[in-house]
Task: inverse folding
């Protein structure tokens, strides 16, 4: 085999190198691929099912791009009115925009067009769901800690942009459902104080609906947002490679190593194969489950609507906000402040921002500047876990609010009752979820502590000589002992005055006081169960054998 | 205990109490070499990577062969499915609808194409994953991590280089150049902003006016005939548009988005709002159909109570009481159109709406 450049035309022994090797040599001379391959070909990746969530997001993005490009070949992003004469008989003679007519054509006249449309739409739904769940995995395991905060933000931006890309795509066919969604958006834009009407006129090229929004949304949907997302995605993946993947705690896994299997061959086969699995499943979904049957309701007309209109799930959250908000409107000095719409419009980004900035808040509270490559078990970070659970619960409450009419009709409840439930729930449910989750975490920590000190319950009942029944506890192996005790426990910051290095006392600033408060909340007595120390363990195990 | 080389920044007060103990394990790859005596000191210490456990396929040649055949079978099924895809594309007519339990009546072509494509893709994936799991080495390896932070020497070098570069540029000394450069860079994006001006016209009064004006007939949206009072029965909701607005007008969508009207007949004695009664004709009242929340068209009418409901977010308006909001997120009543009857006995508008229809906005007042 050729290993050096002394004999470029062939192997060192004078024979010609195989063709593949010669191609690789050629490329290396121009791209330096051997250097890249050396660093990456046998790169180690740890294995865990939850690490596949991000992969699902990645693969569905690729699937969406492939199918999206196919759709552009047939879709006409135009709002010119045409009379329909295609294959779908019930629509014959109806006036509609070219966008809608071409979507009907894709569905009824292009063989396989319907399949690709449905793969595109199912792909979008899977994409956003995968991103959200992936983000939750990162959140609950603390994978966002240093050095990965920036990658957390990249991922967050991908989620937000994905929502907007989905929304603009949903609007393109210009059918009754999507038009209703666009109208909702226009109404929300109008509510913005001072500049609302201007924004709306600039967005729609005049009054709603006008004839511009489909072509405009089209370039946003197929070019602007996917372009930005592609850039972010590449940056996201480069950082994953650069930082190396995090791993769960366990025997042999330290903060300074990464344990797993090499990219080539195992992960190339697994990850490559997984792409096909995801693509296969989404194709099968598109085969058996109709999504967005745009032909069912007809083209958009601003004076027509269907009942039970629902956005895709990732927008159901904003739908909930807008539905439960009381219709506050303030008229002052000839101006109107449309709080009933504007407040929900503002809460939406605020709720998203809350999760986005969380890593920075936590690192400020801990003051920890070290790198973290070993994941937390969620129970060992009760406050964080409780915060994440509360955030998700808010999402669910609003999702329920977004479907209030469906709940009412399916379960024969009054809309009024549901609305009030969601209004109260908006404030109460996250708080309750926070408290309950934190308690569960502490309970689990306590159990871990007991397991370490007293061993695992074996299920075997033993009768002692004096007649008492006890359960035999099996001591843990060292692997488990290590896994259950390896995590760090932060100590809370004391709230008293600070003494600087010269021994001078100084009052704490407001920020420092707040930080000390938060630190107490995070790591104070009620917020974590001290993990067993070696001394405690040895005292119990070396002493009497009675558990 | 140099954990990552960067922990020097952690303030003493909240360092993990036991950080200095051996919990972190040895650096790099900690193999299982510790003797039991050593382990006894710290029962929680990292025992190192467990030894590799071979799979059946690693020991039993026949099992490995079986795996190989499974993988090959999956790849073969994929090929067959692709052939099936092509065959479906050629054979099945695009408009054939079939009944497939439990999915109902669905397009045969879509079903066949989707399933064959799905199968072809899935089998490649399943084959590859099975191959990786059963036949490729599953031995775990450990690789070292290196701190992301640059070592101090590198940082010092970079700072020095930067300083030299900055000095050579004269950026710091030549204030005039610096200031004007920043000015120019700050101003040039303005051109881009200016260019956005023609995205749309200014709102001006456009949202305040609709096609309605004095004398315009109310045209039934379904029959396209002008409405007479007798056409409006008790208990039904009639939709109307202004005369002269045709579906193929180029601005039909925009105009109908503001002018759409709903008409009901209420016993005059049931009308609670004085102005509403004044603006009605023999109990026939005309209201904007566009919800004042975010603009959905209202479509549901409850004839006993004269409530109308917007299907989008359930705002409910009482048409017998000035269309005030009785439930839901809408912020104000639906605008009413003043109507009468012309000399030929047709319903006509007596002017435009006296307030903007649809969602609220800042200038609405
Ligand atoms: C990256 C995230 C993307 C998401 C979440 C997304 C989502 C969607 C959704 C939900 C629809 C509505 C489909 C329907 O039910 O009719 C749609 C339509 C469409 N998308 Fe995308 N899309 C994405 C990227 C792309 C890209 C990259 C392209 C093209 C290069 C594209 C091209 C199209 C076209 C042409 C339509 C309209 C055709 C139709 O509705 O049948 N999309 N998109
Ligand atoms: S648009 Fe009518 S209730 Fe929201």
Result:
């Amino acid at each position: 085999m050729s290993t050096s450049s002394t004999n470029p035309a062939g192997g060192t022994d004078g024979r010609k190198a195989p063709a593949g090797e010669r191609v690789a040599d050629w490329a290396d001379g121009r791209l330096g691929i051997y250097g890249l391959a050396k660093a990456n070909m046998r790169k180690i990746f740890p294995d865990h099912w939850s690490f596949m969530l991000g992969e699902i997001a990645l693969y569905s993005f690729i699937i969406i791009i492939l199918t999206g490009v196919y759709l552009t070949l047939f879709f006409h992003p135009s709002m010119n009115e045409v009379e329909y004469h295609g294959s779908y008989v019930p629509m014959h003679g109806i006036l509609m925009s070219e966008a809608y007519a071409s979507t009907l054509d894709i569905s009824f006249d292009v063989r396989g067009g319907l399949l690709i449309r449905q793969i595109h739409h199912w792909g979008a739904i899977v994409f956003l769901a995968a991103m959200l769940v992936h983000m939750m995995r990162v959140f609950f395991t603390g994978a966002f800690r240093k050095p990965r905060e920036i990658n957390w933000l990249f991922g967050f931006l991908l989620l937000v942009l994905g929502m907007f890309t989905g929304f603009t795509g949903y609007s393109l066919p210009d059918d009754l459902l999507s038009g209703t969604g666009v109208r909702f958006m226009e109404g929300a834009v109008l509510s913005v104080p001072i500049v609302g009407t201007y924004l709306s006129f600039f967005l729609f090229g005049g009054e709603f609906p006008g004839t511009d929004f489909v072509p405009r949304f089209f370039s946003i949907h197929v070019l602007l947002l996917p372009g930005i997302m592609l850039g972010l995605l590449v940056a996201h993946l480069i950082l994953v490679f650069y930082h190396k993947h995090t791993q769960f705690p366990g025997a042999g896994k330290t903060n300074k190593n990464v344990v797993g299997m090499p990219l080539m061959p195992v992960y190339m086969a697994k990850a490559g194969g997984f792409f096909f699995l995801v693509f296969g499943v989404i194709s099968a979904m598109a085969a058996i489950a109709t999504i967005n049957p745009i032909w069912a309701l007809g083209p958009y007309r601003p004076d027509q609507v269907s009942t039970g209109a629902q956005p895709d799930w990732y927008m159901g959250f904003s739908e909930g906000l807008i539905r439960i908000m009381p219709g506050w409107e303030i008229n002052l000095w000839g101006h109107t402040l449309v709080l009933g719409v504007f407040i929900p419009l503002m809460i939406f980004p605020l709720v998203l921002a809350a999760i986005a900035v969380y890593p920075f808040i936590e690192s400020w509270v801990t003051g920890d500047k070290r790198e973290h490559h070993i994941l937390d078990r969620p129970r060992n970070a009760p406050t964080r876990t409780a915060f994440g659970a509360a955030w998700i619960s808010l999402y669910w409450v609003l999702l329920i609010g977004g479907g209030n009419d469906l709940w009412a009709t399916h379960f024969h409840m009054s809309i009024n009752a549901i609305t009030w439930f969601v209004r109260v729930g908006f404030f109460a449910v996250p708080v309750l979820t926070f408290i309950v989750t934190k308690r569960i975490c502490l309970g689990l920590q306590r159990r871990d502590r007991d397991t370490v000190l007293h061993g695992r319950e074996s299920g075997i009942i033993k009768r002692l000589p004096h007649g008492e029944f006890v359960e035999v506890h099996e001591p843990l192996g060292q692997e488990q002992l290590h896994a259950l005790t390896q995590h760090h426990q932060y100590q809370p910051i004391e709230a008293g005055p600070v003494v600087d290095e010269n021994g001078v006392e100084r009052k704490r600033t407001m920020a420092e006081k707040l930080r000390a408060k938060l630190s107490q909340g995070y790591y104070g007595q009620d917020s974590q169960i001290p993990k067993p120390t070696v001394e405690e363990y040895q005292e119990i195990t070396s002493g009497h054998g009675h558990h | 205990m140099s954990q990552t080389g960067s922990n020097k920044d952690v303030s003493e007060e909240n360092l993990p109490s036991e950080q200095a103990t051996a919990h972190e394990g040895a650096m790099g790859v900690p193999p299982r070499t510790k003797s039991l005596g050593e382990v006894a000191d710290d029962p929680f210490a990292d025992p190192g990577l467990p030894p590799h456990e071979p799979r059946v396929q690693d020991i039993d040649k026949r099992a490995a062969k079986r795996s190989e055949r499974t993988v090959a079978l999956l790849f073969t099924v994929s090929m067959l499915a692709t052939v099936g895809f092509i065959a479906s594309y050629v054979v099945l007519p695009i408009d054939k609808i079939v009944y497939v339990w439990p999915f109902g009546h669905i397009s045969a072509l879509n079903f066949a194409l989707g399933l064959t494509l799905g199968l072809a893709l899935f089998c490649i994936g399943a084959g590859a994953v099975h191959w990786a799991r059963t036949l490729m080495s599953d031995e775990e390896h450990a690789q070292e991590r290196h701190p992301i932070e640059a070592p101090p020497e590198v940082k010092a070098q970079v700072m020095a280089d930067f300083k030299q570069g900055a000095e050579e540029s004269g950026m710091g000394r030549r204030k005039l150049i610096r200031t004007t450069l920043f000015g120019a860079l700050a101003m040039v994006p303005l051109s881009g902003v200016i260019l956005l001006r023609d995205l749309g016209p200014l709102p001006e009064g456009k949202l305040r006016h609709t096609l309605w004006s004095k004398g315009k007939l109310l045209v039934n949206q379904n029959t396209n005939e002008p409405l007479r009072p007798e056409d409006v029965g008790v208990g039904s909701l009639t939709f109307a548009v202004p005369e002269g607005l045709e579906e193929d007008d180029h601005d039909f969508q925009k105009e109908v988005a503001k002018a759409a009207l709903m008409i009901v007949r209420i016993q005059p004695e049931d009308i609670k709002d004085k102005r509403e009664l004044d603006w009605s004709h023999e109990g026939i009242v005309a209201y904007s159909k566009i919800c004042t929340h975010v603009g959905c068209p209202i479509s549901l009418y409850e004839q006993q109570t004269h409530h109308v409901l917007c299907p989008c977010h359930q705002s409910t308006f009482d048409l017998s009481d000035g269309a005030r909001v009785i439930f839901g997120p809408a912020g104000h009543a639906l605008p009413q159109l003043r109507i009468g009857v012309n000399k030929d006995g047709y319903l006509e508008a007596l002017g435009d709406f006296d307030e903007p229809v649809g969602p609220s906005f800042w200038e609405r007042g």
Notes: Chain B touches chain A through 125 residues (CB under 8 Å).
